[in-house]
């Protein structure tokens, strides 16, 4: 009986893959300090946002972004460095060199690509990296990821919970189908 149910779910998932509709949204938690940095972050996120996967800024958490050093890390920047990461306990701060080798916009994009694990600062890389459907982290959303999701179907709090409701179910299959095959 369980095998029949899983087979039916797999057929439904594969059917949904080919009838995929628009995806959800991605929210990036960052705390930019100051108007110039906030505008640079918003512009950077707009550059990777698409109608299928709008990418928005959530300032309720994430690393603190500052222009220049502050506190214990107020040491001068090396002129060849566009940004640096400062970690103290669980707090993370990304400091941008105001006189660095890149414009603020370029430095923000480069550093956020690294922070978010994106291979490039493009809508395609964001769709793959931020959708959550790349379950094995290989940069592609493919049948291997579907197999991982199906292996966890019906389980709680595991890999494949794309909508973060603590269970892998039909809602996660629908989200996966919206991203399948996209890069």
From TrEMBL:
Gene3D superfamilies: Dockerin domain (1.10.1330.10). It comes from the Bacteria. Keywords: Signal. The keyword Signal applies. Residues 1-25 form the signal peptide. The keyword Phosphoprotein does not apply. PROSITE patterns: EF_HAND_1. InterPro entries: Dockerin_dom_sf, EF_Hand_1_Ca_BS. This is EF-hand domain-containing protein.
